[in-house]
Input
Amino acid sequence: MISLLCPTRGRPKEAERLIKSFQKTQKNENEILFYVQNDDKFKKDYVDLFNKYKLKTFIIGLHMPTSYLWNKLSEYAQGDLLTLIGDDVEILSDHWDDKFEYASKQYKDNIFVITTQDGRTDKKAGRYLRCPHPTVHRRWKEILGYFVPPFFLHRYLDRYTADLGISLNRYIEIKDVVFNHLKFMSINDDTGKLSRLWIKDDQKNFEITKRYFDVDLELLKKNIA
Output
């Protein structure tokens, strides 16, 4: 099973688009988990939405940085594969889950990073776009003690994870799967503006995480079979 983990805020319509595309395109039975902050003015709409689509697990909880929310969701995930995803994503590729499962079988020790295409073609953004919606095995989380690095508020989670995968030579790009990131539609709404407030803090955090990156890299290396 694959667990898609999605913090969401102020975007029940976008969350519904994601749910529909998730249910339409999966081949097997997977799960999608949402975290809604308890001060969200659309909280009731979210609860109605999740009940409508019979989602088994969603969390209503405290307002926290997005990295904390992804890690909190990972504690409730039932799948062996954990995927970071946002509410401004639409899954366009049929049987993406089958391809994830096939890719994950390349390494018996379950230490790898899987990524997809995100529909963007901004070449100037370079390496940052190389790891949209990273997927790792729950063993990755067990080794490091987290699903995504807790050093950041919102950004650089994917880049830090990608850099670990690349450094280990365990970075898997599934180029025929598109998790379409509709960032251009959401960047200026209230939720998008909130996340942009954290840019400078996360840039600073990224510069000082080298010591943690080296420790994490060594932990993973020790567990490679």
Q: What stands out?
A: The radius of gyration is 17 Å.
